[in-house]
Request: fold
Amino acid sequence: MLRLFAILFEFFLVVVVGRLLGRLVQGLAGGKRTRVDSQAANSSARSPRRTVEGQMARDPICGTFVSTKLSHRLELPAGTLHFCSRGCRDRYEKANVAAI
Ligand SMILES: [Zn+2]
Reply:
């Protein structure tokens, strides 16, 4: 009976030590992962939401990508929005600007 207890205790020890080691390895891997995340955050912060002339911008109404040089623009205090057509710009204005 005592022997069985000793085996159980040993097994318990192995599980605990195994878990601790697992956590240690996870912690190291997690540290690396957060470093990658911060890099990704930096790169996304570097690409500004406001677009420079001659780039592609997304029409917020229909989702079409339009050239900022050819787009129908809407100047807002928050920045310039680009639309593929006057219809999309009018729809946006009616839905958002009129409410303000
Ligand atoms: Zn559109």
